[in-house]
Amino acid sequence: REGPFIKLNCAAIPESLVEAELFGYEKGAFTDAKKMNRGRFELADGGTLLLDEISEMPINLQSKLLRVIQEREFERIGSSQTIGVDVRIVATSNRNLREFIANGKFREDLFFRLNVIPIQLPGLSERIEDVPLLTKHFIEKHNRENNRAIKDIEQSALKLLMSYHWPGNVRELENIIERAVVINKSDIITEDDFPIELTLGRLSENVPSLDVPMKLEDGNRYLILKTLEKFNGNKTRAAEALGITTRTIRNKLAEYEVSEN
Prior knowledge:
The protein is mainly α and 261 residues long. The chain has three domains: 110 residues, P-loop containing nucleotide triphosphate hydrolases (Rossmann fold); 71 residues, Helicase, Ruva Protein, domain 3 (Orthogonal Bundle), CATH 1.10.8.60; 57 residues, Arc Repressor Mutant, subunit A (Orthogonal Bundle). A three-stranded parallel beta sheet has the order 1-4-7. A two-stranded antiparallel sheet has the order 2-3.
C-alpha cells in the first residue's frame, strides 16, 4: 500500500510505443531516444501497476508481459542488462477475454496468469443506485479541472440519468457530466445540459408501453408528440432529436390536426 501506483492504458497508446512505455529504453535505442527512460514496470517497482484495457495489448507483446510476470525481470529496449522488479499487476478489460482467446487475439497462458483473483464489476445499468454518488463526484472533479462552480443537479436531471441504460458505463456518465459542467450557464445542472441521446433513451422506454399491435403511423405520431413535449414545443430541437427536418414536423402536425402552438 505504501508503494507507487502506476497506470498504463493499453488502448490509448499507439502499438509501436507500448513496449517502450512498459519496459523503458536506453539512450540511442531508436530514433528520438535522446536519453534513458524508465518504463512503467520499473516505476512501479515495490508497488502496483494497473494495465487498463489489457485486451488491447498487441499479441506480440503479450509473451514479453508474461515473462515479466513469471520471472519478475526484464530488459530496457536497447540494453542487455536484466532488471529485477517486484510489482503487483492489476489488469482490467471491458471485453470478453475468453472470446479473444478463441479468436487468437489474447494468449491463454497470459489470461490464466493474470486471472488469479477475478472481480466481475456489473455494468452501470445494473447498479443504477451508484449514479447519484458518481454524478456528485464527477461534478466536483470537473469543477476543479474547468474552474467552474456548479453547486448541484436538478432532481429531474438526476432522474433522467437514472432512467438511462448506459451502454458506455461509467466513462459515458463522466463524459456527460463533464459536458454539462462546461456548457452550463448557471450553477445548477439541468436536463438542457445533457445530449439528445439521453432524452431519446427515455422516450424509447415509453414506446413499448403503447398498445401493440398498432399502426406504424400511430407510433410515429406518439413519438413526434412526446418529443415535442420534451422540448417544450421547440420544433428545431425535436427535429434534431428525431433525425427529421422541421418541415416534416410542421407537415405532420398539420396532418394530425394539432396546433403548432
